[in-house]
Design brief:
With 286 residues, the chain is mainly alpha-helical. Helix content is 51%, strand content 3%. Helix 5 runs antiparallel to helix 6, helix 7 packs parallel to helix 9 and helix 11 runs parallel beside helix 13.
Length: 286
């Protein structure tokens, strides 16, 4: 659930990679991703997680010495996860210090480098202010992305006007597609990303969006086929997990309370029986 839900959100991935060291493993010693050392480390702090049968464990934020600084429910929304991470950093300033690389970028980095660090740390407004002074294509592409996340469509389109041709053209197509999608113009959204190349770093996101556009138009079978092909033929990244989450719930008509261990055929292209917890919010109208 986590890799399909909160940990498929770019904002969360950026913040974790900037300030935390993520560790993902099976708590069950016999699991496919079992890690006995990691399990022992967690169970020492939370003895209740060491039983033969435990409830789905939370996400724990811990120090290298094993102190628990914070936790968040396994089924948390993206916003709840972000708030929890920010809360930990605010309460524990000693773990929220800039690295040597960040200090160097702050002193002499390019506006694009500095904006990316600000974005990683969740300082989106500061990143936007910095990039608004720039006219380069790369800077404008990142500014457009930040504006799109804030649903500031006019500012997004203004920034994209400076992104013409070249390797950033796919970025512009994807950003505009999300705009069309937000406007409920689903056919236009799919058409916008039709030209995104197979080698583009935005390919899986583009294909996921095509599936969503088909789903919102009532083309369930086409959406499922698009997501399945995306999962099977694109490089693995967070959008693959999000597509698998959408595929499973859309194909099973799940209300978001499915189970990994009960009933039903394996319908997920990643071999999942279901996704416990909340429904994929992308399946709802934008």
């Amino acid at each position: 659930m986590l890799r399909a839900g909160p940990f498929s959100d770019e904002r969360i991935v950026r913040q974790i990679n900037r300030r935390f060291v993520p560790l993902y493993f099976d708590l069950n010693p016999g699991g496919a991703l079992a890690d006995n050392k990691a399990r022992g480390f967690v169970v020492k702090a939370r003895k209740e997680l060491g039983g033969a049968s435990v409830n789905t464990p939370p996400v724990l934020v811990m120090t290298p010495d094993g102190d628990v600084l914070g936790e968040v429910d396994n089924y948390a929304s993206e916003e709840t996860m972000l708030d929890s991470l920010r809360d930990v950093l605010q309460k524990h300033a000693d773990w929220n210090q800039p690295s040597d690389d960040e200090k160097k970028i702050a002193r002499s980095g390019t506006p694009l480098e500095r904006a990316n660090v600000l974005f990683d740390l969740g300082n989106v407004d500061a990143a936007r202010r910095l990039l608004e002074k720039e006219t380069g294509a790369a800077e404008s592409a990142l500014l457009a992305h930040l504006c799109r996340l804030a649903k500031d469509w006019d500012a997004m389109e203004k920034a994209l006007a400076r992104v013409k041709g070249g390797e950033l053209e796919d970025d512009a197509r994807v950003e505009r597609a999300w705009h069309r999608y937000a406007e409920h113009d689903f056919a236009a959204a799919a058409k916008e990303v039709a030209a995104v190349g197979k080698e583009s770093r935005r390919t899986t996101e583009a294909r996921y969006l095509v599936g969503l556009a088909q789903w919102q138009q009532g083309k369930k079978d086409e959406a499922l086929a698009t997501w399945k092909a995306t999962i099977e033929h694109c490089s693995q990244d967070p959008w693959i997990y999000r597509a698998d989450w959408a595929f499973t719930q859309a194909s099973e008509g799940s209300d978001g309370h499915g189970s990994f261990s009960t009933g039903g055929p394996r319908t997920s292209p990643l071999g999942r029986i279901g996704y416990m917890g909340r429904r994929n919010p992308d399946l709802d109208p934008p």
